[in-house]
Design the sequence.
């Protein structure tokens, strides 16, 4: 499969982003 | 199940029973997932800049609320970026027109909220853009899955 997904993350959304990374089992941020 | 759907089910159903047949734990392998750290007040400008670079042919852009979907769609209009919006405050005819226009290529961008987007048939998109980070990881997986397409 292929595809592209972008996520714009503001500082106040960092906790939600961390929860997503935990759920999918890999970091998405450099 | 997204928190909003679970809440809605509790409100509308009597003694609902949940059967979880499948739990996808991650988006399909092969999807490129990129994160852009950005101040909340700069998100619209960053999105417009990305869209103006013409590397994104079509995309569904997810916002957290109906109000934010409207504000973003209005902003994209002002930037000359063709878009349609679909969310819970739109009538069925407006939703149908937006979806048909997007699928037919009359609108490059579909701005959507999660709950409404769950019920629409839009798959194999060029790009999925999370304008707002979803509060539920399942919503993220569901959103991102819409860009999965065969190589």
Sequence:
């Amino acid at each position: 499969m292929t595809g592209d997904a972008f996520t714009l993350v503001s500082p106040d959304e960092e906790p939600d982003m961390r929860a997503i990374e935990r759920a999918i089992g890999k970091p998405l941020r450099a | 199940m997204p928190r909003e759907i679970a809440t809605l089910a509790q409100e509308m159903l009597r003694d609902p029973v949940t059967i979880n047949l499948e739990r996808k734990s991650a988006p399909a392998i092969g999807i490129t997932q990129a994160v852009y750290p950005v101040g909340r007040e700069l998100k619209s400008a960053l999105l417009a800049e990305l869209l103006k670079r013409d590397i994104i042919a079509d995309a569904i852009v997810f916002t957290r609320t109906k109000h934010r979907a409207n504000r973003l769609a209005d902003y994209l209009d002002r930037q000359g970026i063709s878009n349609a919006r679909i969310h819970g405050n739109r009538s069925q005819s407006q939703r149908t027109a937006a979806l048909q226009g997007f699928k037919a290529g009359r609108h490059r961008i579909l701005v959507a909220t999660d709950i409404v987007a769950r019920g629409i048939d839009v798959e194999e998109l060029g790009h999925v853009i999370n304008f707002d980070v979803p509060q539920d990881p399942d919503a993220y997986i569901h959103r991102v899955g819409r860009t999965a397409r065969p190589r």
Notes: The longest strand of chain A covers residues 3-9. The interface with chain B takes residues 1-13, 16-17, 19-20, 22-26, 28-29 of chain A (CB under 8 Å).
